[in-house]
Amino acid sequence: MSGDAGDPTDGVLGFDHLALPMQNTTAMVDFYRSLGLSVEEHAAVVRVFMGDQMINFHLPDFWLGDFPLRAPAARPPCGDLCLVWQGTEESLASLLDRAGAVVIEGPVAREGGRRTVGSSVYVRDPDGNLLEFMTYPDQPKEHAHAR
């Protein structure tokens, strides 16, 4: 994608991070760690990393305060996120089971951001945010944790 002015390579490349308010801090930290993700706890935010992307979960004291850089109506649960799963559907089912996540739908065929159909499984995190795990058919079948 290129911008209209300046360098012809100017433009939006993709997502760097998303920010969501969080209610159940301990349960959320434990859940995302149980998914094998890198989690960092800070004074106002919990950061969850997936490769080069990040979710900032704002702690309740932070988002209930006067912090202006957030969607004013955002309250948990307000997230609907799709994560790309690198591995088999069986390894995903095993991981979700160990994490205590209940599958609410799937596996089902869905078109994703790659503009191709993958297989999706849906669960909720402890705050109630919807998580979709999408496996694309061209994905390598060896699982590598995003740490």
Q: Number of folding domains?
A: 1
Q: Would you identify the regions where 5 or more consecutive residues have pLDDT less than 50?
A: 141-147
User: Using only CA atoms, what is the Rg?
Assistant: 17 Å
CATH topology: 2,3-Dihydroxybiphenyl 1,2-Dioxygenase, domain 1
Q: In DSSP terms, counting alpha (H) and pi (I) runs of 4 or more, how many helices?
A: 3
Largest sheet: 4 strands, mixed
Could you tell me how far the N terminus lies from the C terminus, measured between alpha carbons in angstroms?
Answer: 29 Å
Could you explain how this protein is built, in words?
The chain is α/β, with parallel strands linked by helices and 147 residues long. It has one domain: 2,3-Dihydroxybiphenyl 1,2-Dioxygenase, domain 1, CATH 3.10.180. Helix content is 17%, strand content 32%. It has three helices and eight strands, in the order E-H-E-E-E-H-E-H-E-E-E. The C terminus is likely disordered.
Summary, kept brief:
The protein has 147 residues and is an alpha/beta fold. It is 17% helix and 32% strand.
